[in-house]
Amino acid sequence: MSYTEAEIASQPDCWRRAADLVREPGGAVREVLPRAGERVAVVGCGTSWFIAQSYAALRESAGQGETDAFAASEMPSGRRYDRVLALCRSGTTTEVLELLRRLRGTAPTTVVTAVPGSPVTEVADSVVLLDFADEESVVQTRFATTELVLLRAHLGVSPDRLEADGRAAIAAPVADGLLGAEQFTFLGRGWTYGLAQEAALKMREAAGAWTEAYPVMEFRHGPISVTGPKSVVWWLGEGDCGLEEEIAAAGGRLVGDGRDPVAELVAVQRLAVAIAQARGLDPDRPRHLTRSVILG
Asked: What transmembrane ranges does the database entry give (predicted)?
C-alpha cells in the first residue's frame, strides 16, 4: 500500500479529531478562526487555494461575513481585512511566508498547518496545528479535507454524515470503466466548485490525466464540446446537477453518488491512485512536484 492509499483511508478518523478541536473546552481554536461579522481573506497555494475557495463560499453562504479567497501570490495590496487565514500544510511555502511577513501589523493572521515549529508559525499571529493529518506523500489528500472539516465544524456543520459517507467511499470498489476514461470534467456549485478544482488537480498530479473543472452551469459554455464516449463528468455538488440529458446526449458518463461532496472527493482521490498505478506512475511522488514549493 502506498503512503497515499494509507493516508486516504485514514481521513474519517482525522475529520473527527479536527471537529473535536473546535469543540474543545476553552475554545482555543475557535478564538483564532474567523469570527462572525469579520471581513476575511483566505489564502493558500495549490490544494490549499482550492480549499480556501470552498471555505470562503461556505462562510459567506452561512451569513458569517464577506470572505475572499486568493492564491497567496495574488492577494491584492491595499485591501482591508479584519483577519487573514492562511492554509499551508508544510509551513514552508515561499508565497505564504512572504505574504504573512508583508501583512504583519496590518491585520490579525492565523495559519492552519501540519508542522509544528515550521517557519510559517513564526510569522503568523496564531496557529492551528493539524499535525495528526500530516502526510508522507507529496500529493495532499487527508490534510486538505481535514482542514476543510475543521473550518466547516467552526461554521456549525456536523461531521457525522461525512464520516459515514467517507468510510463508504473508501470501502467501495472503483467503478467499472473509470480506469479507461480519457478525459474528466469535474463540476461543482457554490462551495463545491473549489472541491471540483481540487479533484481535477488530484487527477493531474497523481495520474497525469486530462482533467478540467468548472462551475456546473459553465459546462454548456464550452466544456461540453470535449465530452464524448471516453469522457467522465463528475458532479461534486449537492442534489442533482441538472445536466443529465446534455451529458448523455454528448456521449459522456455522469458520476456522482449523492455523498457529502468531501466524501465524493475521497472517491476521486482513490481513482487517481488507481489510474496512476495502472499507468506505472508513483502516486506518492509525482514527476516535477515536491512536498513544498520553496523559491530561491
From this structure: none
The burial of 158, by beta-carbon neighbours within 10 Å (0-12 exposed, 13-18 middle, 19 or more buried), is given as: exposed
pLDDT in tens, 179-194: 999 999 999 999 999 9
Domain range list for the chain: 3-154, 160-278
Q: Which residues contact 129 (CB under 8 A, 6 or more apart)?
A: 113, 114, 116
Look-up of cell digits 476543510: 148
Q: Which helix (H) or strand (E) holds 69?
A: strand 67-71
Phi-psi region of 112 (alpha: psi -120 to 50; beta: other; left: phi over 0): beta
Residue matched to cell numbers 466548485: 193
Homologous superfamily in CATH for domain 3-154:
Glucose-6-phosphate isomerase like protein; domain 1 (3.40.50.10490)
Cell numbers given for 187: 463540476
Return the C-alpha cell found at 124: 503568523
215 burial level (CB within 10 Å; 0-12, 13-18, 19+): middle
pLDDT digits (tens, 9 = 90+) for 83-101: 999 999 999 999 999 999 9
Identity of the amino acid at 147: E
What is the three-class DSSP state of 209? coil
CB 257 within 8 A of CB 267: yes
Model confidence band, residue 286 (pLDDT cutoffs 50, 70, 90): low
